[in-house]
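Figure 6 in text form: structure in, sequence out.
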């Protein structure tokens, strides 16, 4: 399948490995040898399974996630050549969680990107993401810092996350380097990206959280869509009881299709997402190599139109309008 990202990275796989949970967790414990071994097993299994894009952020586990990936490059230099590295800047967090804030000021972007590269053992980024829109962003200041970092070769391409079409277009107007991707929450559980398109003219559309026109803008502008939370944190692939009857019904249907296709439940959840014609790249946040490898079987699943709609309608608890 040809994805918008293939204009820039012809070999990029459709599935992406997310690293939000690597590095020993959201605590102040230093990265341990065990954390590095865990990441090594996961990344090795990702590569074996055809995944070559790694999604990171400066804040994940307070920098320990990037540090862990950096340790992998120390351990095996050649690993870098197999991977497309993307990381993010723009959220400020401290271990005491005092004032959570966004910061897309030029100064913060420069210092944070340089810190990420240092943690990554001096490996520059293939794609730099602006993690979230910052209401206090001064466009020229942000654009100047990005252009400078780009000239210095600190990153090759720029991308955004959690932004709507207007924000992307505005940012692009100040930059002569293309914005090549937008990462948003999209999954069978967070399906407002589908709801938005089918509830036009209906009162319930006012409740829709997905930014109108963003799918279409990205499609037209050649901006790759990436989905975070794509496995719905296991909501439909876990077993056991759940208070919500729609979740229970969706779990049962996912399990039925998984058996029919001979795949893991996550493969069905992901196949549903990838079957949307927006050519979405799902970001998989599992730390479990076996779960990751089984999930890649999603690439072989082709749901029928009836199966796709039945999953969607079971999840929403009511048929489409
Ligand atoms: N751009 C943004 O704003 C943003 C926000 C959040 C995340 N992200 C990116 O997206 C990636 C994925 O996000 P995510 O981790 O929230 O979502 P996810 O991939 O949907 O969920 C994975 C998480 O769910 C857990 N899980 C529990 N049971 C599971 C099951 N049966 N199947 C699958 N997973 C199960 C996993 O645990 P195990 O490790 O035990 O499998 C893991 O902690 C992150 O790593 C990060 O790279 C980006």
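Output sequence:
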């Amino acid at each position: 399948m040809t994805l918008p990202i293939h204009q820039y990275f012809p070999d990029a796989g459709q599935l992406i490995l997310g690293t939000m949970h690597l590095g020993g967790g959201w605590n102040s414990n230093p990265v341990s040898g065990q954390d590095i071994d865990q990441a090594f097993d996961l990344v090795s299994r990702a590569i074996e399974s055809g995944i070559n894009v790694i999604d990171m952020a400066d804040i994940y586990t307070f920098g320990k996630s990037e540090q862990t990936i950096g340790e992998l490059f120390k351990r095996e230099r050649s690993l870098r050549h197999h991977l497309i590295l993307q990381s993010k800047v723009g959220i400020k967090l401290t271990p005491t969680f005092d004032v959570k804030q966004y910061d897309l000021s030029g100064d913060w972007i420069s210092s944070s990107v340089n810190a990420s590269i240092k943690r990554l053992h001096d490996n520059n980024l293939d794609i730099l993401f602006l993690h979230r829109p910052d209401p206090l962003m001064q466009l020229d200041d942000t654009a100047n810092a990005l252009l400078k970092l780009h000239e210095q070769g600190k990153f090759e391409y720029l991308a955004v996350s959690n932004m709507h079409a207007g924000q992307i277009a505005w940012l692009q107007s100040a930059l002569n380097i293309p914005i090549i991707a937008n990462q948003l929450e999209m999954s069978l559980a967070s399906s407002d990206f589908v709801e938005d398109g089918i509830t036009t003219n209906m009162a319930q559309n006012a409740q829709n959280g997905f930014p109108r026109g963003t799918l279409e803008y990205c499609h037209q502008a050649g901006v790759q869509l990436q989905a975070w939370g794509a496995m719905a944190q296991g909501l439909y692939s876990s077993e056991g009881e759940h208070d919500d009857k729609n979740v229970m019904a969706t779990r049962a249907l996912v399990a039925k299709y998984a058996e029919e296709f001979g795949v893991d439940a996550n493969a069905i959840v992901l196949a549903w997402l990838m079957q949307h014609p927006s050519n979405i790249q799902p970001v998989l946040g599992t730390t479990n190599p076996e779960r990751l490898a089984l999930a890649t079987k999603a690439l072989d699943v082709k749901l029928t139109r009836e199966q796709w709609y039945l999953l969607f309608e079971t999840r929403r608890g009511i048929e489409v309008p």
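Caption detail: Strands lie at 16-18, 53-55, 84-89, 91-92, 101-102, 125-130, 155-161, 179-185, 224-228, 281-284.
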